[in-house]
Amino acid sequence: MTVFFHEPVMVEEVCYFLLRGEGVYVDATVGGGGHARAILERLGPSSMLVGIDRDEEALDVARKTLAPFASRVRLVHERFSRLRDVLALFGLRRVRGILFDLGVSSWQLERGERGFSFRREGPLDMRMDTSWGKTAFDLLHTLSEDELAELFFRFGEEQYARRIARAIVRYRKKKPITTTTELSELVARVAPRRRIHPATRVFLALRIVVNDELGELERALVQLPELLEEGGRVVVLSYHSLEDRLVKRHFRQSSSLQEVTKKPVFPSPEEVRRNPRARSARLRAAEKVSFLEGRA
């Protein structure tokens, strides 16, 4: 049986910025259903929620979490970059609001077999959708030293990217790197001790590339003007600067979206104390404006 506990981040803030009356809402990263449940609890029986996730195990849990609202929920196993196609499945062209929670769930991190955490031993997988795609193991053993260094520097903003890449290439000539702890220990041996674990940014970079997270986000964001009703809103919870910069740039460059949050909204100190994984979260929201209204 799948055991899934993930405390959703900034629930009150998400609902405050996202909900604009009755209608159809999309939770594009439904996970275990925490945000989706909070949204449905605040909406009337005429509203509907479409939940999307590329992790099938997460969807199994979301079905249980959202069972009291089953008649108003549609769950789809898909990447959120295919938003337009998902909505078309239900004859929908536009919706009232869309939520993206871009973080990895506590449940995914704590399951060693998924390979996301440097603290838990498991295979070097890191795929959100385990049914397809290259794994972290594949990248570590096929990319050159230059390519690995670029990956760690660009997607993990890792200061010691070259040193770590060189150590990986040297190590894999002797034997494959097969587990998360093996990689974590290798990185820790060659990178200086810091406030965060030395492997944190390496694991982040690998996860981003394995799942094409920035590409997926970019492809989803460009669909928003077409898919949101006038007055509808999008809320994005991001957890690292690469995602946040991409969201901010898209909101500010779009002629159809008006920023609701001029600066990112952060979780309260009380929430961070209760749920330490919320500490890096930042929320941005934007609203679809009419063509005639334009940008303020």
Automatic annotation (TrEMBL):
DNA repair as UniProt keyword: no
UniProt subcellular location: Cytoplasm
Pfam family, one: Methyltransf_5
Domain of life: Bacteria
Broad enzyme group: transferase
Entry keyword Magnesium: no
InterPro entries hit by this protein: RsmH (IPR002903), SAM-dep_MeTrfase_MraW_recog (IPR023397), SAM-dependent_MTases_sf (IPR029063)
Catalyzed chemical reaction(s): cytidine(1402) in 16S rRNA + S-adenosyl-L-methionine = N(4)-methylcytidine(1402) in 16S rRNA + S-adenosyl-L-homocysteine + H(+)
GO biological process: rRNA base methylation
UniProt region (Disordered), positions on chain: 259-279
EC number(s) reported in the record: 2.1.1.199
Sorted UniProt keywords: Cytoplasm, Methyltransferase, rRNA processing, S-adenosyl-L-methionine, Transferase
GO molecular function list: rRNA (cytosine-N4-)-methyltransferase activity
Binding site for S-adenosyl-L-methionine: G33, G34, H35, D53, F80, D101, Q108
Its job: Specifically methylates the N4 position of cytidine in position 1402 (C1402) of 16S rRNA.
HAMAP family: 16SrRNA_methyltr_H (MF_01007)
Protein family (similarity comment): Belongs to the methyltransferase superfamily. RsmH family.
Name of the protein this chain belongs to: Ribosomal RNA small subunit methyltransferase H
Originating gene: rsmH
